[in-house]
Amino acid sequence: MDIMVVPKPIFNASKTVKGYYLSFQLGNALLEEGRPVSLEDNVHSPFFAFVNQIGLATLTLGLPIFVPVTNVQLATDLERICEVERTNVVLLMGKKIDLSEANLQRIARFKELGFQAAFIHRTDIAAMEPFYPYIDYIFSGNDTPEVMSLAGSVRRSRQPVKVIAKNVSDDTTFERMKAYGLEYFEGCFYVEAVKRVKTQVSPLKVNYIRLLDQVSQEDFELDQFARIIQEDVALAMQFLKMVNTSSVRSGEITSLRHAAAMLGQKEVKKWATTAVTITLGQEGPNEIVRLSMLRAKFCENLAGLFELGVHRENLFLMGLFSVLDVVMERPMKDALALVHVPDTVRAALMGQPSVLNEVYQFTRLYELADWSEISRIALIRNMPINRIFQAYNDALVWYGELVMAPAADLREP
């Protein structure tokens, strides 16, 4: 079965990720066989197959995952189907789930088995209220009357149900939802562009900016790379450990310069941009780092589908630097002025004509789960759905392996 899936983050009021829910599309959304209704009568869940295959350590770094289920699947033995830790699996029930006594009993049973449960908000709140004792979350929109009505219903029930505001696109909406008493949020508000311009960059970031600037140049000096990296002991140790465990090592490493030469410019650049981006992102929401890394690898993986194989390295850099404005806390134009990037990458990130633009926009559409537009592009370019999914799936696996490695053993992309 052709499927596209993207795990979308759920944040608390401190912008800390508390879990992910699976947004999906079966097949091409513009074709009859691609419409999600085909899932309703299916006993087998492609989502549990996806979660089982990748595993929660890679998919969510051990955080809860919200998995869509149907009426038919609620009547099956999901505990046999689910191969990951049940306590981190939230059964997500959409608007087609029957609010029947039979389903209520089934949900209660799954709760006893260790699963969590969530509903998509219904307009008939009264019909949902009997389920409150057995569910942990309800997804709501961000419309004020809807949110206030649902939040009021939950408060009156005295049940510990958490309301999740969906499609929170900016900080203004985020603050408004917080004011209504909501504690959980989904949307792209966490990557909202910084509006103010800072006159200074944090001293903690200066050395990392110098390193990014150095390795982003087309033909950088390994001597200069070594001089910069030796000023940060932790970063130098990460680099040496990575080289020590890489397949390119031959003989004893005598210096940072020697280690860099052994690895080569291309791999040094990949390692440095990855390591520095992770370090810089530690001051902001953790999801910024994950987003940056997934974009980088997904963009690179899409090179073949867009017939841009010669631009694979630049596609990786484009994805990696796509949140540089957030990391540096300044508009993208000013953030890019701090580093050297290829003209094609700079143009794409500034919204100017570039051979990389289409891949960048496609990546953004995929992470937003804009399946209609993704499907349209796939039809025009004759791109198989399974290859699109595989490109993203491989990025998820690569990122999971990267961050699960010990901090001092950061490996090359």
Task: Describe it.
- It is built from 21 helices and 8 strands.
- The protein has 413 residues and is α/β, with parallel strands linked by helices.
- The chain has an 8-stranded mixed barrel with strand order 1-2-3-4-5-6-7-8, surrounded by 4 helices.
- Helices cover 49% and strands 11% of the residues.
- It folds into 2 domains: 3-191, TIM Barrel; 203-409, Hypothetical protein af1432 (Orthogonal Bundle).
- It is elongated and about 70 Å long.
- Helix 9 (203-215) runs antiparallel to helix 10 (222-229).
Summarize this structure as a short list of keywords or feature phrases.
single chain; 413 residues; alpha/beta; TIM Barrel; Hypothetical protein af1432; 8-stranded mixed barrel; 21 helices; 8 strands; disordered C terminus
N-C termini distance: 30 Å
Ranges where pLDDT stays below 50 over 5 or more residues in a row are 406-413
Following the backbone from N to C, one meets helices and strands in this order, namely: EEHHEHHEHEHEHEHEHHHHHHHHHHHHH
Tally of distinct domains? 2
Strand line-up in the sheet with most strands: 1-2-3-4-5-6-7-8
Looking at CATH, which topology of the largest domain would you report?
Hypothetical protein af1432
Strand content: 5-15%
Task: Give the C-alpha Rg.
Answer: 23 Å
Number of strands: 8
Q: What would you call the shape?
A: elongated
Number of helices: 21
Computed structural class: alpha/beta
Mean pLDDT rating: 84
Would you identify the CATH architecture of the largest domain?
Orthogonal Bundle
